[in-house]
Amino acid sequence: MADVPDRIIDAHHHLWDLDVIRHTWLAEKGVVRFFGDPAPIQHNYHVSDFRKDIADLPVVASVHIQCGVALEHNIRETEFVQSQSDEHGLANAIVAFCDVTDDQAQSELDAQQDHDNLRGVRQIVGRDAVEDARHGTNALLKNEKFKAGLESLIERNLSFDLQLTPPLLSAAARLFKSIEGLPVAVCHAGSPRDFSREGIRDWENGLKDLAEHGNMICKISGLGMFDHNWTVDSLRERVLRSIDVFSPGRIAFASNFPVDRLYADYAETFGAFIELTRDFSKSERDDMFFNVAKNFYRIEL
Questions:
Q1: Which of 16, 55, 66, 148 has its CA 20 to 30 A from that of 38?
Q2: Which domains does the chain have, with CATH numbers?
Q3: Phi and psi for 195 in degrees, rounded to 5?
Q4: Cβ neighbours, 10 Å, residue 101
Q5: Are 253 and 210 in contact (CB under 8 A)?
Q6: Are the C-beta atoms of residues 100 and 152 closer than 8 Å to each other?
Q7: Beta-carbon neighbour count of residue 247 at 10 Å?
């Protein structure tokens, strides 16, 4: 693979142990999700498995993102990932789940912050129209308790990972621009899935609204969830428009493994990002593949 960066931080992946932790969506058999059929990944995924996927790519650090655990297992997920890191060196940062609107949120955050690698929280705001209707997550943007919970993260020196869908981008921008002190990472480049001219236009406009937040990065990852038969050319517009909106100094690349392994292997996934950025300068690529994630998630190497 030509022009591989010297160092890569995978800014968004998952680890899980289904023997001891209940991930609700992984426990459901025969249920097709918005990204497809998860059956091929409904088994344990530890650092040893992740390293096999990474193979020869120079991934020197990574960020684990919470992944749909049953509420009673929130802390257990963080304990598991911390133990994997302590033993195997990855993941170097943990983004855990916490319902920041819950009355017990602050005590739960206290418990989460007992783990050395805890860096932030993800509470999904938008997934897919059907799942949003079932979970009511998109109503969070108008919930005053949600805003208050987000503000509490600032005092704890924690960041927020924002996962949502394009119809919610502008509404989310209004909320998060009122909390500029909170570091925010947009997951999966805002999850573009409507590839019509109008769909791409609306997604890009929403990203531009979000990018006005002065303390926000954009993670380019998970695009295979919405484009199962992707090619480098089919990803080109979404990747380059995301970079254009946020600039290389606010972009982090990530695998979304093992979920995106449903559609491509690790070398193909990062190989696409490497190919699509080959015309950027070395310093710009160093930012996108390493520095932005290192600084945002406060990774020490």
A1: 55
A2: 8-296 (3.20.20.140)
A3: -95, 10
A4: 16
A5: no
A6: yes
A7: 13
